[in-house]
Design brief:
Elements lengths: L12 H12 L5 H8 L3 H13 L19 E9 L4 H12 L4 E6 L7 E7 L2 H10 L7 E8 L16
Antiparallel strand pairs: 1-3, 1-4, 2-3
Helix pairs in contact: 2-3
Length: 164
């Protein structure tokens, strides 16, 4: 039997509500948050700080519109590697981490691919340039299979929180 080495932080209803509110609008002031959860500002601030200190809140970001920035082509790319060695994987991961077009990169199992990338570019010409000029030039890449997103059906950044 394995022993759990790290316990999960207990979240009460107020903590979950704070997280829900902040996920939906990270720009809310402490005063606005406190009002929405029924706390005074000082205890609200302490709770948010504790959520940050416990690693539950890891940062705050502005969400941008890809369309407004002229980034109209979203691709999901399956990558196969020629050898499954730590050096090959580390090299690939460092290379894609340096590419601003790569929004997400996952090492996967259960497919013929080793990685799945989520890539955002302006158009097909930009994609071709990224594919041929960057991605296929990374040592170890032996196969690339691209799929293009026609329409986003669900897109969210909020984690599922189950309020009592």
């Amino acid at each position: 039997m394995s022993k759990v080495t790290k316990s999960l932080v207990e979240l009460d209803r107020t903590d979950r509500r704070l997280l829900e509110l902040l996920q939906n609008d990270g720009s809310l002031s402490n005063l606005e948050l406190a009002d929405k959860v029924g706390l005074s500002p000082s205890p609200c601030s302490r709770r948010v700080k504790a959520l940050e200190d416990n690693g539950i809140i890891v940062g705050y970001r502005a969400l941008l519109s890809a369309k407004a920035l002229g980034l109209d082509l979203l691709a999901l790319i399956n990558i196969s590697m020629d050898r499954h060695t730590p050096e090959r994987f580390n090299n690939f991961e460092q290379a894609v981490a340096a590419c601003p077009e790569v929004l997400e990169c996952y090492l996967i199992t259960g497919q013929s691919a080793d990685y799945v990338l989520k890539v955002l570019v302006e158009d097909m010409d930009s994609y071709q340039q990224f594919l041929l000029g960057t991605l296929t030039r990374i040592d170890g890449v032996s196969g690339v299979h691209s799929s293009f997103v026609m329409r986003k059906v669900v897109e969210r950044t909020a984690m599922p929180l189950f309020l009592d």
